[in-house]
Amino acid sequence: MKTLGLIGFPLTHSFSHRYFYEKFERERLYDYNFLNFQLERIEELSDMLKNTPTLIGFSVTIPYKEKVIPFLSEISAEAAEVGAVNAVTVERKTEKIFLKGYNTDVHGFTETLRPLLNENIRSALILGTGGAAKAVNYALKQMGISSFFVTRKTQNISSNTINYSQLNQNFVKNNLLIINATPVGMYPKIDEYPNIPYQYLTENHLLYDLTYNPERSKFLEKGLIKGTRIMNGYQMLKYQAEESWKIFNS
Ligand code: NAP
Hints:
The chain is built from 8 helices and 12 strands. By secondary structure, the protein is α/β, with parallel strands linked by helices.
């Protein structure tokens, strides 16, 4: 038996759990199972590893994408640069457990954005400054697209970061790609949306929402009204899960 898993807190509705069980069924992978590990503290990781000897890899979600890093024996160059890990392989060498961390959000975002790009999209606004925003920023850099983070913070913000209050017509006009990398608008708070000046959006804009529940967030709806193209986070989630699967079995 080979076990895959997910760590996070809380783990109420896990996409990964359903996704991998459906995959095991569909592809007749009867020697795999998938467990959710709801850890109240990241320090519980050691006991989880000891108690699950068949574990070959696990995904990492909120709030542990950064907190898991000190527990790793090795980290991929990509994940180190992003500063967040969402997939970890587990290798057992005699008594020692060897953990290596990866960031597959970068792959998921890159592969789903690429078909939507055109030569006019040279610069982007990333709403939020958390782990997902950092993965998006890294992916955009690899694709030659410059970006600004947009934050609620007003102090100690870096040079490529602006506050929502600075988002004027020029910023919106010059950044044809806008990515919501915040949880704003996600179920159950589906009437909320990021505080950007939607009136300046045009049909040349592309709005990408990393959230996927609801399928069409208020953020995306407000873009559609102005004629923008839209994309939600569901395909990204599938691409990152498949990439994690490849890594767990490598
Ligand atoms: P996070 O660290 O909890 O939050 C991201 C950032 O959002 C925060 O740093 C904060 O930035 C901003 N934010 C949080 N609450 C806000 C609010 N009420 N109003 C405005 N801004 C707020 O989360 P994350 O891990 O980066 O994930 C962000 C979102 O992406 C989540 O909804 C997650 O489910 C989704 N996601 C999707 C995929 C996918 O495959 N589709 C992958 C990863 C993540 P400031 O404090 O700087 O404003």
